[in-house]
Amino acid sequence: MDLLFHVHKGGEIVNISVLNPGLLTTIQDLGRNGYQKYGVIVSGAMDTYAMRLSNIIVGNEENEGVLEITFVGPSLKLEKGTLFSITGADLSPTINGKKISRGRPVYLNKDCILKFGSCITGCRCYLAVAGGFDVPKVMDSKSTYLRAEFGGFKGRALKKGDILSIGIKNSKSTKIIKKLEEIKVKDDFVASSWYIKNFMKQNVESTVIRVFEDRQFQKVSDESIDKFFSSKFNIDTRSDRMGYRLSGEKIELKEKLEMISEEVSVGTIQIPPDGNPIILLADRQTAGGYPKIAHVASIDIQKIVQLKPNDKITFKKITLEEAEKLYFEREKDILELKKSIKLITI
Amino acid sequence: MINIDDIEKIVRVVDKFNFSHFEFQQENSKIVIENNEISKTVINESSKAETKAFDSKAEKAINEEVEEINEENVEKKYIKAAFTGTFYSVKEQGGPSFVKLYDEVECDTVVGLLEVMKLFNEIESGVQGTIIDILVKDGEFVEYGQPLFEIKSK
Amino acid sequence: MFKKILIANRGEIAVRIIRACNEMGISTVAVYSETDKEAMHVKIADEAYCIGKTSVKDSYLNVQNILSVAMHTKADAIHPGYGFLSENTDFAEICEEFGITFIGPSYKIISKMGDKSNARDTMKMVKVPTVPGTDGEIEDIDEAIAIANKIGYPVIVKASAGGGGKGMRVANSEDELISSIETAQKEAQNYFGNPMVYLEKYLEYTRHVEIQIIGDNYGNVVHLGERDCSIQRRHQKLVEESPSPALNDDLRNNMGQAAVNVAKAVNYNSVGTVEFLLDEENNFYFMEMNTRIQVEHGVTEMITGIDIMKEQISIAAGEKLSFTQEDVKINGCALECRINAEDPAMNFIPCPGKVENYLSPGGIGLRIDSAVYPGYVISPFYDSMVSKVIAWGRDREEAISRMKRALNEFVIDGVKTTIPFHKKLMDNETFRKGNFNTKFLEIHKDLFEN
User: Fold this and answer.
1) Under an 8 A CB cutoff, do C34 and B146 touch?
2) Given CB 3.0 to 4.6 Å as the disulfide criterion, which of A50, A322, C173, C450 pairs with A87?
3) Residue A9 domain-assigned (yes or no)
């Protein structure tokens, strides 16, 4: 006598095996918040918009850990029963050699190999897996703090031979899988016909980045302000997760300034002594001693982090209010997208 | 009276053969087409059916073309909407269309997008052939099953 | 008040909703499957959009396409009718998230009442009698055996998430109980995706008597009397009537009050029906609550004069109930025969096809709700309902004689219908006496044969 009582709908536990780690593949979530006062940086995904969407698409919480993949993608073995999505840059992902599209949920009917190829647009893409990455949280976050070697997967970028275990899928994810299973496909994998547009078209010439004044804006010389808003800046090769260094016109202050370190955040544009602006990003230090000329509107961070060395940018001045308005609009859009995904599962 | 279907057929023919001047009269209506531009004047006049072409070599070709369009045994297929939502003919706002009139398409050619509640779906042709008519505009709301493109299939 | 309502349904109920909207000056949006292109509800709505292929799953349950139309047409509300999405908690919730009013109770209430074993717990809380049974779902077999012994055999195992007669098994002894539980669980898992079951005493000789209730958003709840729906075949209702021949005023008041208590306990804010089982000693037991408008609502409308559909729409728009319990007066007797395109002589097999000739009856005391017209093709993909014939009389005898007249006048050519069965029923002695229970059709199989 074998009676069925309540069946736990967690589903199977799956793993990801790293066959080839790619250039820089790390686990990131939305960062370590509340610890800067202890000198611990925030880290987290560079393109939080793409990262949040990748989680939403597979039914995860927005803040769940994902793989941030930079320039050259990894080669991963994904197991049967994995539900994943890829957002952000187009690094030519393929499953068992077949091209797969970004911005949609993909469910595997068999064990498969996920590979990446040439960098078509952007440079950072995000791989979210339903159930999230089963790594311990360090100070409330799964983000990898590379320099300090903690968080994420053993505090480092992925290496060949690593095995990542995936957590249990939640009910949203199982509903998404149920819908995908209705598309009776004999392939190794099934992807939804719908997708979310997330990647913004990039101008070949130069990308316009909207900024508003920051604290030391008035300390910058008038000619430099003009140069700042009229010239093209080049993304320097010495750009990384800490920040993007720009080269081009030098920005000068009205007079030499001795500053006590102040707070900085994602998008703060500093003017170091050499006059080449630095845009601070995810792995920035907890405080900065350079003058802050302007601040990138949150909504344009996703543009910056997808640029590669030698890409060009120009700055456009907007007000803080305008930046906030744009930010709220995008948050509204994200809420709408979440509702739409919920709708799919009914 | 010349009806809109006839006008479309005539315009297609004229466009294809690049006439500098073309006149067509039938009963109460007359069409005059000048300089390849699709600026036509339809004038109501009473006269017998008459076709004038300034390039006599092309006259025969026109008749053949019109006949071909009128033929019943041409395989005409439609690409229909698979959802009820908004049709987009372009990938990005202000960008180029996926396809144009008379483009050749394969079964898996993406001819447009259908957005349903903020989620996008690529519309694949499903048919191999030539696009002979585009029945919807960019941004138009379409119903399930609504014909979007007319394809002349091989 | 709403400016525009989208009707997420088809057939006669869609027509019913559109009629109410027309009277209220609300514009209507119909949605339809490819097969329903010529359907009546499509023809009479102000706007109509095709939302999918034939199958119900691709069309009338296609929430993406339905909401897409609602957003595009700027509909303020969606009326789900009965069946389809009317008791889908997720759909009700998502409508709210998109700012569209779902015409029905709030999704939390649907969820609460939709879980049958949970609903029983609510009944206990308001001291509404329930059929003796387990407290909540069966967690282990020993408990089940103990309770079955306590309440006495026969017992019935029912699915928590169930309905429509599925996931139910009767057990007459302890041996049968174990296999009944197993079978019911398997069936429940297959049909509803949830294997949880509960136990109740199996009452064999009962009448199915339901109370129509209406509640608004302000805590006002009234009942509109009962409907006796004991004439059923395989848990499908064929005939409904009001008042019930089995009820006297006291019993009516008690059951009505019990139903109102149930509704008040959950802050019920729409139209709904509380179903009871009435045994031979006139004890009533709560069976389940339906959180939607029902097929047979017209029977109650005929004897009370209240337009339940318009009331439901007003309540959803935030208005107060337009009458009190004192205002509700039961007048006369109404009887409804569901005419389906089925052959009663062949086990009620569906007979879809083209209705060549259709002439509905008329005259005093008749109401015909239908979406059929001459030339209309009844599709095999949806329910086989042709028409609801409701006859009213000053007493039951008059109602029956009017129904007979109506059935004799009704012309439906091209498809077989259940009219011959209903005609025979109207002449049946037991039926005319009003002395029947849910076993009636099992016993009187002669009514089916030709």
Assistant:
1) no
2) A50
3) no
